[in-house]
Automatic annotation (TrEMBL):
Gene3D superfamilies: Endonuclease Chain A, Polyphosphate kinase middle domain, Polyphosphate kinase N-terminal domain
Cofactors named for this entry: Mg(2+)
Residue ranges occupied by any Polyphosphate kinase C-terminal domain in the UniProt entry: 362-526, 534-694
Annotated organism of origin: Paramicrobacterium humi
Protein name: Polyphosphate kinase
List of residues binding Mg(2+): 406, 436
Length: 723
């Protein structure tokens, strides 16, 4: 692993090199309460997800899917953000009161808000989504709702498929309280010894490798399909597990643990070994949330609280079933009539073959002009994947260099790199094995790459390599030519179907030389000081953006046209927010399109009157990042960086400037549509409240941005055949 030092001022105008912002001074004269709290803003984001689950205009299986997403999101929030705050408070580490960190009191605010949202989440399932599913022929039932023939069938199923893998664990002086793994469902069971009359406690872990919902119907082609939660089926057969004992009571509970990883990186230590050691420790992180069914008795709850060493604030009483993340299974049921209409992405117009059944020459297309691809509206398979597969098979390609943050083990991207290495090409894969919750998967397929002869680099000390880059070196007409791809999303074919992302393909020599130098720095010890068309973190991306923001401020003060438009996942960096406030005070119109966290307060008189903030959630996860500056003389960048401390200070990030007027117009039109009052979206108020605008004054639904973009993409015409 190498150290790193990025200096890349040359990617922006040199006429203002005297601009040298000092972090922390931008807020002089601005109110102390100018930021929204980061954690509460994240909970507001998850509330927006919940509002989609509550929307009865959406197909019911999609609503179930949004309930599952809400649950999965909240699990990760507790495992990482809440766990990190709790650890800092317990260990006495400094906890600043800015939007990047929260004081001890914010844990109470988080708990209050999370309790409200989890109860609302459960109500959405029980009062709305579950009944609507039943009306559509999909029911989640309890044992008491089934007849004798159903009981017989399920008892046989239990005996054959479930009973052998269960392990009841007693708790008594000879058997200490068992370890409860994070996110596992568990049954607490109280039994009485029929001989001695003594009561005992036992725990049964609900096996995670079994289906979360067991199909009840054993008849062929039933009109109504029924499912029973696995824990309910187990609870009806406790007598089989505690033969000779009287089962008094049972309840379901679930524990969330601290699963954040902190690696003490040492250049003298093997990073993989250090990470694998921390992955083992992750399993035993301290509990930070206990979910129990609302009918749990006080005696059992007191035992769990004492043994898990948690506070009453960390206990969540909820109606069963717990862990509605299991609804992902129901959402996968093959009922197209209960889902969004099926969509097939189009091939990007520049990558369509000249004949309907022909094969496109991607290198020829990219050599003619830059190509901007928009996933999932345009196909990942016929663009990014095809680009790498053609590179692997092309005898004129000498080398491929690529960053990999998250992908799948059976990914065609990985296979293409392996094929290229086996064909004798020089292949470099910069693998970020510290990608949270994908660490073990990344280690496994990185080793697969190494075995095939790929040069694998495991990132940089103290930094995550988050940028999305691919560089192909091709021999053409006696010289080498660079073909580059810079994207906003991961090289993952699976997530590309549901994540909205942009990717630029270019044969521009400036970009190719920039990436060549950047890869040398990432894999070796070079210290590059100049990039022509890139803005690179960690050292100078923030500075470059601050220059661009300040340029708009000065234009507005001089009475010239100005404007700033930003699309990101999250914006919490204080220096960026303060610069935007300064620009707004000068009269710069500012539009911010954010999916998740926003620490900026829009529309505050005298501070942010010209700033509008919108959020769009829907079928696809809005994931691209766009940074647009200026009026007629527009500068637009895309890349992988959000406006967060981790992206700007602790990650290698890259933004690339778009220069083709078609691409400037396309990104501008996207933001126009997102910010239009006629588009369905959430609007952020100065107090942190997000208000949904989904219907017009007549009750008619507003424009769905994602539907609109899919329709526009589908209307693009195939180029005429070249003869």
């Amino acid at each position: 692993m190498a150290s790193i030092d990025f200096v890349n001022d040359s990617a922006i105008d040199r006429d203002d090199d005297d601009f040298d912002p000092v972090m922390g001074d931008e807020g002089a004269g601005l109110p102390d309460d100018r930021y929204l709290d980061r954690e509460i803003s994240w909970l507001a984001f998850n509330q927006r997800v919940l509002e989609l689950a509550e929307d009865d205009t959406l197909p019911v299986l999609e609503r179930a899917n949004f309930l599952a997403i809400f649950s999965s999101n909240l699990d990760e929030f507790f495992m990482v953000r809440v766990a990190g705050l709790r650890r800092r408070i317990v260990t006495g580490l400094a906890v600043p009161t800015n939007i990047g960190r929260a004081p001890a009191g914010v844990l109470e605010d988080i708990s209050t808000r999370a309790h409200e949202l989890q109860k609302r989440h459960a109500e959405a399932w029980h009062r709305d989504v579950e009944p609507k599913l039943a009306e559509a022929g999909i029911s989640v039932v309890s044992w008491d709702q089934l007849d004798a023939s159903d009981h017989e069938y399920l008892s046989d199923y239990f005996a054959a498929q479930i009973f052998p893998v269960l392990t009841p664990l007693a708790v008594d002086p000879a058997h200490p309280f068992p370890y409860i793994s994070g996110l596992s469902l568990n049954l607490s069971v109280r039994v009485r010894n029929t001989r001695t009359g003594r009561q005992e406690f036992a725990r049964i872990k609900v096996p995670q490798m079994l289906p979360r919902f067991i199909r009840v119907d054993h008849r062929e082609s039933p009109v109504h399909v029924r499912y029973i939660p696995l824990e309910d089926l187990i609870s009806q057969h406790l007598d089989d597990l505690f033969a000779g004992m009287e089962v008094i009571d049972h309840h379901v509970f679930r524990v969330t643990r601290n699963e954040d990883i902190e690696i003490e990186e040492d250049e003298s230590e093997n990073l993989i070994q250090a990470l694998e050691r921390e992955l083992l420790r992750r399993r035993f992180g301290p509990p930070i949330r206990l979910e129990v069914t609302e009918d749990m008795d006080d005696q059992t709850l007191e035992l769990l609280v004492r043994e898990l060493d948690i506070t009453a604030q960390e206990v969540y009483r909820l109606p069963g079933p717990l862990d509605l993340g299991g609804l992902f299974e129901l959402a996968s049921i093959d009922r197209p009539d209960l889902k969004y209409p099926r969509r097939v992405p189009n091939t990007a117009i520049d990558f369509r073959p000249p004949e309907p059944n022909g094969k496109a020459d991607l290198f020829g297309a990219i050599s003619r002009r830059d190509v901007l691809v928009h996933h999932p509206y345009e196909s990942f398979a016929t663009s990014v994947q095809e680009f790498l597969e053609q590179a692997a098979a092309d005898p004129n390609v000498l080398a491929i260099k690529q960053t990999l943050y998250r992908t799948s083990g059976d990914s065609p991207i990985v296979e293409a790199l392996i094929d290229a290495a086996e064909a004798g090409k020089q292949v470099l894969a910069l693998v970020e094995i510290k990608a949270r919750f994908d660490e073990q998967n990344n280690i496994e397929w990185a080793r697969k790459l190494e075995k095939a002869g790929v040069h694998v680099v495991y990132g940089l000390v103290g930094l995550k390599t988050h940028c999305k880059l691919a560089l192909v070196i091709r021999h053409e007409n006696g010289q080498l030519r660079h073909y580059s791809h810079i994207g906003t999303g991961n090289y993952n074919p699976k997530t590309s179907r549901v994540y909205e992302d942009l990717g630029l393909f270019t044969a521009d020599a400036e970009v190719g030389n920039d990436l060549t130098r950047l890869f040398n720095e990432l894999s070796g010890y070079a210290i590059e000081k100049k990039f022509k068309r890139l803005l690179v973190a960690p050292l100078h991306l923030r500075k470059g953006l601050l220059k661009l923001i300040d340029k708009e401020r000065r234009a507005a003060e001089a009475g010239k046209p100005s404007g700033i438009r930003i699309k990101v996942n999250s914006i919490v960096d204080e220096a960026i927010i303060d610069a935007l406030y300064r620009a707004s005070q000068a009269g710069v119109p500012i539009d911010i399109w954010v999916r998740g966290i926003c620490g900026l307060k829009p529309g505050v008189p005298g501070m942010s009157e010209t700033i509008r903030v919108r959020s769009i959630l829907g079928r696809y996860l809005e994931h691209s990042r766009i940074f647009s500056f200026g009026g007629p003389d527009k500068r637009v960048y895309i890349g992988s960086a959000d406006m967060m401390h981790r992206n700007l200070d602790r990650r290698v990030e890259v933004l690339v400037q778009l220069r083709d007027q078609r691409h400037l117009d396309e990104t501008d039109a996207m933001i126009d549509l997102a910010m239009d009052d006629g588009t369905s979206s959430w609007w952020l108020e100065a107090d942190g409240t997000w208000t949904r605008h989904a219907f017009d004054a007549d009750g008619e639904p507003l424009v769905d941005l994602q539907d609109k973009l899919m329709a526009l993409t589908s209307q693009r015409r195939r180029p005429r055949s070249r003869r």
